[in-house]
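If your schedule permits, I should be very grateful for your opinion on a structural question. I would ask you to consider whether the tokens describe a fold that such a sequence might reasonably adopt. Thank you for your consideration; the sequence and its tokens are set out here.
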Amino acid sequence: MWISCLLAFIGSACTLVIELIAGRIMAPYIGVSLYTWTSVIGVVLAGMSVGNFVGGVVADRFASRRALALIFMAGGVSSLSILVLTHSIEGVTFGLSFLPRIVFSIAVIFFLPSFVLGMVSPMVVKLALANLEHSGHTVGTIYASSTVGSIVGTFTTGFWLISWLGTRRIVWLVSGILLLTGLLIAAGDRSRRRVAVVVSSALAIAFFGAIGAGWVSGKYRAPCDVESNYYCIRVFEAGNDGHSARVLMLDRLIHSYVVPDDPRALDYGYEHAYSDLTEAQAIGRDRIDTLFLGGGGYTFPRYVEAVYPTSTIDVVEIDPAVTATAYERLGLPRTSRIRSFNQDARMFLTEWIDPRRYDFVYGDAFNDLSIPYHLTTVEFNRIIARRLKPDGVYLTNIIDRFEGGEFLKAEANTLRAVFPHVYVFGRGDAFLPFDRNTYVIMASRQPLSRERFDAITSRTDPSSRTTPLSESRLSAYLTSGRALTLTDDFVPVDQLLARLFVERGN
């Protein structure tokens, strides 16, 4: 009995490990969103369900140690094929728009191993049912062991394996365990009809050898420098506007352009908007207290340190590996006055006992379809408001389309539920009805000094000038269509942004 329980444990543990790493493996190609995890869970459950059914049919007709050994070896081969298939479909769209492509890509890669591993439990149960008088106890014990395996696989992967090994090495670990289990079962089979097992074993080992050779050459490795619990992190060099910059890529998205030797260099339009609005609000002050929600490449925190050298600069960056990358490869000096806190921004602000309040809070945690929705709600904005000085300002960047998009409008309405003054800014022609753009929302208890702001932005070329949406146009915009307010109980951020990607097909 204990052997049957162990086999069920191994099969279920490996299934859940694969399910957990699936989202991380796919992140560099399709991003991380509600749609990604919905597709992963749905595909894995579909594979397991079909596997359970087919496994039951096979168990009724061919129940034997030999068949179970073949299932485990097939599980090892199909799990290792994740590396091959992921490499093969990189950049392939299959002619599908964004959301169908998410489902199809995940199904191509992860359905087969889920299906094969789904066959394990029915076969194990069939082989264990020698005495039907105790069938209930036998089945219950085996399925309890299977569930425990799922639990162990889940916690071990999420808490340790990903940060220790990275997703690709975990694939090797799972595949190796399954293949070894199959070979051990086959070695204990004393029947005369062992040709199929011997041939299958040889083919499986040859497959492992071929993929291993590709692995040694770097063919099937992750497309990043560091795999953390949160991101696939990559840094590369790029020329930009006549100067050399380092680019920080998190999963599939370029997050920051950094010029290590020039902390005043800004590339993104929203960073220039942050600079203009900070200057307008900080005139006459040589020190400002600032808090950044999201560090990324630490581009704007370094800018603030250079321009306002006596200021307080606190950065809440959820991923310690991102902060380490900023120090090691993006020019953030160890002697910097920037303080980093590696924690979720909302949890940090809720639990931090320091009564400090800030002149500026900068949101930089929103990027493309990867939106931490709990940082978009009325409840979170109230937390921000409590951390601001009476004349403090909250600035956050939003990627959306002005006409036809819904997230920008919903977030502005949500901020208006907390702050009396809310403004929306774009760069140049950002408010024209064309493709998606990056906008900046400013929220405060005090009105913006338009004279100061106009004096600062007048120095900039009109094509790249920070431009506010007029009060009348903003009011009409925020009340048009679905005027949503996001709360902890209602925050459909992924759905609000999905139209951008469905229509663009990327």
